[in-house]
Design brief:
heterotrimer, A alpha+beta (357), B alpha/beta (370), C mainly alpha (597), B: 370 residues, alpha/beta, D-Maltodextrin-Binding Protein, domain 2, 10-stranded mixed sheet, C: 597 residues, mainly alpha, MetI-like fold
């Protein structure tokens, strides 16, 4: 991860934004590299949209700097920044056709008519709407409207593409399809993109890096893999994917006491003995060992199981500890889950995350 | 879309131009601006000879009801727009005078004017042209249908058979209403009945008190009795007569000119001048005090009390500032001048606020919903 | 990477250039906001300040603090006016908003037939000078009124030419007495007629734009029609309803035309001002009562502000315009209701028409057109008529531009947030200023040589400006309601495309709001044609207006010619409306295609 990176395209330094007494953004710093696809991910009210609007110049920050392509744009009005934007509502001009919507910014530049037409045609093809050029927004489906909005945002070849929950208003099937298209499109034209979403699946599949936010602060920045694999805080751990949490106390170097069980952990992050901690482990990281019981192996009773296609989800209880375990189909076939039997379960030390509680 | 833009643009342009034209037209100095409360049709008749005589003076008339004109003059106090006032109630002019808005001027021919018709100072601030007086407008058809006798006097109006059939103007909103109330207060004897103040058997006029003592005048007990018979107090002075003319209520306390005018236009109205005498007010002229007085104003004021003008007024009013010797206009009683009581305009003006406050306290309950 | 990603150099240059031009745009926007502010401050706030100042002075012009207010409330008869005003305004508002809501609902959300005809007829009262309502109500409900004496009795006299004394009591008769002059009922009824078109306009705008998807969702959830109405329709129109209530209440409480004509027996605040100012020339007391009239506006403003905070954009770009589906029972029911309302309106206007052609009401009912001969009317009847037309035209054009641009600046502008909030408040104030008071305040303020705007006094522009201000708030609400229903990100998108706001205003905002803009224009035109109260103090000797002549004629007892002139204005208003419908029909069709699904 330490390979040298090019100069950041967008730099955000110590950004702060308040609405009266409510702190929407607290000391946000962030770097975005050329061609990256960044997702701001977090629950509603976490400040992700505010951050996007600050970057666009639609909100003015109280403090901090925003530098785009080496230019300090902190105090520039939106109209003088270089970005294209797609809103959750799309904000298509209802009285203009799809083609006119896309041409809207181009026409203002006094370009030759033919050049505008060519560009609009190109963009319509790009989003696969060549046949709908002369339709009004009300005559288009949600997905088509979304694509028109995207084409419009790309019309001026902006250095930065901002997407504010662009898929959230669509139904699930359309959303999944568009998600893939969006990813492909972004790779193809290589525009630096920031997308706001509250949907972790969207973030994980689309983003080069995810910025996880909560209560106006950045909780973690990292690749989907990093964020998923090594959540830095319990919030991140909980917000992205499924996670088991176990309460415990640091028992010694590399050991945590969890109820009656002593569990070994690989990374204690310098927590002193006696500190109350939370242990976290993903359901798919818990394994049912085939070999003889080793350390970190508990005896658990199956309380419930769900069939989820590719795997079974088991609800287990090991004395006072409750957790879930995702069991791959292949392994599940060898076990008889209908028996209310005790199972040995292994919590690998490498996958146990420790957070002070 | 292009069509829309063009359309709006053309509309804008056209209207901007006409606005400019309007602006240029609005400032018209050099001509004479006259504020008046005279009736529109009177103005037409009166002005024609003036215009013939002075073709180079353009007279611009701002006409409205007495209250509106007075309010407007007062509101414009800091920068009067009128050059002169022509035919406005003397009680209004007294207020303007109090505010120092009038310029004393003795128009040519002043010595000919009835002394009761002018400001008593040597150089008067106002000079009257005609008098208007309280009269009852009675709808002949309606009193016939209701089987009511024709009221002849103030005394008749408080008889129980008229209960709910009389309308009169609210003195708080109408000068005519105030004129009648002030007259009643001056006319009532010690027992509260209205004394006859005209003719051979005229009673002695009482000493009129001032200030709060006005509230003790016996006239209030007459007004109390009258209040029982009043259906509604109207906002304007002409309205009781209009209501009578339309049969809304059979009897309206108003003024003489109205009764005559409505009878002329075919309404079943007769004017009744109360036997005890009528309260009255003058319509008078005055010069506005301004930094630069328009010389044409003097010309107009001189003309406005000339015999020629008075003759014109006499076509509508039996009593004019100059005795023209003409017969009274049709519909007025022959002895019109004799029907007026000795009216103390100054007393009425000085005690106006006290009288109105007392009136409000006693009778504005009629304005409450029941 | 494909060619898409490479920006042709010429574009970059053009874009940079466009962006630089945007520097001026920021200042232009601020400039326009400040200009709107300057307009409102000069023509609303400063005259209002003059008014408040006078309410704290005595007759001699000395400062006396709140003494006038104490005096007002310690006079029982005057305090009663306050109660009367509240009662009448509340009742009229309740009745009108209910009726107009049902009517607007029928027009916008059902498949009722004859919508256009019904809509046009329902808006008729707006073309009539308020005096006409007064005359009609006297002729209908006065002591000689058609209903008071009996409808058949009247018809016999009208058609048979019988004398009033010759008609015996008939065995069948439609007859009732609402005690017009003594009970508030008459005023309330007349106010309902006066208010109805105003309220209907606001509610039609509020109901005309709806997202069909919400209704589809409601249907999918098997919500009953009633439940859909309660959960989708009402909340969607909530803002419009609150605005309508606010406007209706203030219009009634400040109206002095109707109480003056038929409310002699019921005192209200507005006629108290008349009594104080016109009757007694007590400007200080008149100002005091006027300031009291502002109280409901302040309260209304607070409620309105509160409602607005919860308002969300109804017409997002994805919204699908609602197209009502037939429902025979409901459609018939609504049709019956609308026909009843329209019949009542036609009855009032028809009565006024009769008033203008009968010889001597109520005694000689033979018809005659002589009252329509204005050549003999003093003061040049037709000159005044042309002046009125010109004034109305100017008011319509400039009023619409001023209102819509400043509503846009306040609603969609960026920057100067506090200034914009203050301007919003200022825009709601004029509705609370009775025209009489506005007129007086204008004299106080403008008729001073020290005032740099002194040159306006006594000119056409001041008549136009005072009329624009007098009818500002309703127009402002119409504009704001339309603007609120637009996606709030349009401006953000334009900024991202380096398109200046004024271009988006011209290309998107104006076309999308065109129906509302056109309504504002017509609203201004007809009101300017018939307004009296503000201009009665401001017209100058050579700029007489027809509406003022009407009042003067009526004052002089010439009720029939006054009614005739009123009808002339009424038909003019309708004529202009028709002409304008014709001219703009094509325009509307071309610009509103996008509304169809």
């Amino acid at each position: 991860m330490d390979e040298p990176r090019p100069t950041p395209y967008l730099q955000i330094r110590h950004l702060r934004k308040t609405f009266r007494t409510f702190v929407a953004l607290e000391d946000i710093s962030l770097e975005v590299y050329p061609g990256e696809f960044i997702c701001f991910l977090g629950p509603s009210g976490c400040g992700k949209t505010t951050l996007l609007r600050c970057i666009a110049g639609l909100e003015e920050q109280d403090a901090g700097e925003i530098i785009q392509d080496g230019r300090d744009i902190s105090r520039l009005p939106a109209s003088q920044r270089d970005f294209g934007i797609v809103f959750q509502s799309y904000a298509l001009f209802p009285n203009l056709t799809a083609a006119k919507n896309i041409a809207y910014g181009l026409e203002n530049m006094k370009l030759p008519r033919a050049q505008i037409q060519a560009r609009v045609q190109e963009l319509l093809e790009l989003v696969g709407l060549s046949d709908f050029a002369h339709k009004y927004p009300a005559q288009l489906s949600g997905g088509q409207q979304q694509r028109v909005a995207l084409a419009r945002a790309l019309a001026l070849s902006p250095g930065l593409l901002l997407l504010d929950e662009p898929l959230s208003a669509l139904d699930a099937r359309v959303r999944a399809g568009l998600r893939t298209e969006l990813a492909l499109l972004q790779r193809r034209i290589g525009v630096t993109t920031i997308m706001v979403t509250h949907d972790q699946e969207e973030a994980l599949t689309l983003a080069d890096r995810i910025v996880v936010m909560d209560h106006g602060t950045i909780q973690q920045i990292g690749t989907p893999h990093e964020v998923y694999r090594y959540p830095r805080t319990p919030f991140v751990a909980n917000f992205i994917g499924e996670m088991n949490f176990l309460v415990g106390v640091v028992a010694g170097q590399g050991w945590v006491q969890c109820g009656a069980h002593q569990l070994r952990v690989s990374r204690l992050n310098g927590l002193a003995q006696g500190t109350s901690v939370k242990l976290a482990i993903r359901p798919e990281d818990i394994v049912i060992p085939t070999a003889a019981p080793a350390e970190n192996t508990l005896s658990a009773r199956v309380q419930h199981h769900e069939f989820l296609g590719a795997f079974y989800r088991l609800r287990l209880a090991a004395e006072e500890l409750n957790f879930i375990l995702d069991l791959p189909m292949a392994q599940a076939r060898d076990l008889d889950l209908t028996r209310q039997d005790l199972l040995p379960v292994h919590l690998p030390a490498d996958f146990l995350h420790v957070y002070p509680s | 879309m292009k069509l829309t833009q063009l359309f709006i643009l053309i509309a804008l342009l056209g209207l901007a131009l006409s606005a400019g034209a309007a602006l240029a037209q609005g400032s018209d100095s050099g001509t004479l601006t006259v504020y008046t409360a005279l009736e529109d049709d009177q103005i037409q008749a009166y002005l024609a000879p003036f215009n013939a005589k002075y073709p180079n003076i353009t007279v611009n008339i701002v006409r409205d009801s007495t209250g509106v004109i007075t309010a407007r003059l007062l509101a414009e106090k800091d920068n009067p727009q009128a050059d002169l006032i022509w035919g406005l109630a003397a009680t209004s002019l007294l207020i303007l005078d109090q505010e120092g808005m009038l310029e004393p001027y003795a128009p040519a021919g002043l010595e000919e004017i009835d002394p009761r018709f002018r400001d008593s100072r040597e150089v008067p601030t106002w000079v009257g042209i005609d008098a208007y007086e309280t009269a009852f407008c009675v709808n002949t058809i309606e009193i016939e249908r209701l089987g009511l006798p024709m009221p002849e006097s103030w005394g008749d109006l408080i008889k129980p058979e008229y209960e709910g059939y009389i309308v009169m103007p609210n003195p708080n909103s109408s000068g005519t209403g105030f004129l009648s109330v002030a007259a009643v207060l001056q006319m009532a004897g010690a027992d509260g009945s209205i004394q006859t103040l005209i003719g051979e058997n005229a009673a002695e006029v009482q000493e009129l008190p001032s200030g709060e003592a006005v509230n003790e005048l016996p006239g209030w007990s007459y007004l109390d009795a009258l209040d029982k018979n009043i259906a509604v107090y109207t906002h304007s002075g002409s309205k009781p007569c209009r209501m009578a003319g339309a049969g809304e209520y059979p009897i309206g306390i108003s003024f003489g000119y109205r009764a005559i005018r409505q009878a002329r236009s075919g309404e079943p109205i007769v004017g009744v001048w109360p036997a005890e005498g009528s309260g009255w007010d003058l319509e008078a002229n005055a010069l506005m005090k301004k930094a630069e007085i328009n010389p044409a104003a003097y010309t107009f004021l001189d003309w406005a009390i000339s015999e020629e003008a008075m003759t014109l007024y006499a076509a509508n009013f039996p009593i004019t500032g100059l005795d023209t010797g003409l017969p009274v206009p049709e519909g007025y009683p022959e002895n019109a001048v004799d029907l007026l009581i000795k009216n103390d305009l100054y007393w009425a003006a000085a005690n106006r606020e006290v009288i109105l406050a007392e009136w409000l306290k006693r009778y504005d309950a009629k304005s409450e919903p029941r | 990477m494909t060619t898409i990603s490479t920006t042709p150099p010429s574009w970059l240059a053009a874009k940079r250039k466009a962006a630089r031009a945007l520097n001026t745009e920021v200042w232009l926007m601020r400039g326009l906001i400040l200009l709107s502010g300057a307009f409102l401050v000069t023509f609303v706030l400063l005259p209002l300040y003059e008014l408040i100042r006078r309410s704290m002075e005595n007759r001699q012009g000395e400062f006396v603090g709140l003494e006038n207010y104490l005096q007002y409330f310690s006079t029982p008869a005057l305090a009663q006016s306050f109660a009367n005003s509240l009662y009448i305004s509340a009742m009229s508002t309740l009745i009108t908003v209910t009726l107009a809501f049902v009517f607007a609902y029928a027009l916008t959300r059902t498949c009722m037939p004859f919508k256009n005809v019904l809509r046009t007829l329902a808006l008729l009262p707006i073309f009539a000078p308020s005096l006409l309502h007064g005359i009609a109500f006297i002729y209908l409900f006065g002591n000689q009124g058609i209903f008071t004496n009996g409808v058949f009795n009247f018809l016999l006299r009208l058609i048979g030419g019988y004398d009033i004394r010759a008609v015996p009591p008939l065995p069948f008769e439609i007859q009732f007495n609402i005690n017009l002059y003594k009970e508030p009922t008459g005023i309330i009824l007349a106010e309902v007629f006066y208010l109805f078109p105003h309220v209907l306009l606001i509610l039609m705008v509020a109901l005309s734009l709806a997202d069909a998807r919400l209704y589809e969702a409601a249907t999918a959830l098997r919500a009953s029609r009633w439940r859909t109405f309660l959960t989708v329709t009402l909340p969607g129109a909530r803002y419009g309803i609150i605005s309508a209530c606010f406007v209706a209440f203030t219009l009634v409480i400040t109206d002095f035309g109707i109480p003056k004509v038929i409310g002699d027996g019921v005192s209200v605040l507005a006629t108290d001002i008349y009594k104080q100012v016109i009757g007694q020339q007590n400007f200080f007391m008149g100002s005091t009562v006027s300031v009291l009239l502002l109280t409901p506006t302040i309260i209304g403003f607070a409620i309105d502000r509160f409602a607005q905070r919860r308002q969300v954009a109804m017409l997002s770009a994805r919204a699908v315009p609602y197209q009502p589906k037939p429902n025979p029972t409901l459609d018939r029911l609504m049709l019956a209701f609308c026909i009843l309302v329209v019949l009542a309106i036609l009855l009032v206007i028809g009565t006024a028409l009769i008033a203008s052609v009968v010889n001597v009401w109520p005694y000689r009912l033979e018809l005659s057109g002589r009252h329509y001969d204005f050549s003999k009317v003093a003061g040049g009847g037709l000159d005044a008529y042309w002046n009125s037309l010109r004034m109305a035209g100017l008011t319509a054009v400039f009023g619409t531009i001023i209102v819509f641009v400043s509503a846009y600046m306040i609603e969609k502008g960026r920057g100067l947030g506090k200034t914009r909030a203050a301007l919003y408040f200022l825009s709601t104030l004029p509705v609370a200023l009775p025209g009489l008071v506005l007129g007086l305040a204008y004299i106080f303020f403008f008729n001073r040589p020290a005032n740099p705007l002194y040159f306006l006094y006594g000119t056409m522009p001041i008549l136009v400006l005072s009329t624009i201000v007098h009818f500002y708030t309703v127009s402002f609400f119409t504009a704001t309601t339309a603007l609120k229903q637009m996606d709030r990100e349009f401006e953000a998108v334009s900024a991202s495309l380096a398109v200046p706001f004024y271009r988006t205003f011209w290309r998107v905002t104006v076309p999308v709001s065109l129906p509302a803009i056109l309504e504002i224009g017509i609203y201004y035109f007809v009101n300017a044609l018939t307004t009296v109260s503000a201009v009665i103090f401001l017209y100058s000797a050579n700029l007489k207006l027809a509406s003022i002549m009407i009042v003067n004629m009526d004052d002089a007892g010439d009720t029939a010619p006054a009614a005739a002139m009123s009808m002339l204005l009424f038909f003019t208003g309708i004529g202009v409306r028709l002409l304008y419908e014709l001219v703009t029909r094509g325009l509307k069709q071309r610009t509103q295609v996008w509304r169809q699904r």
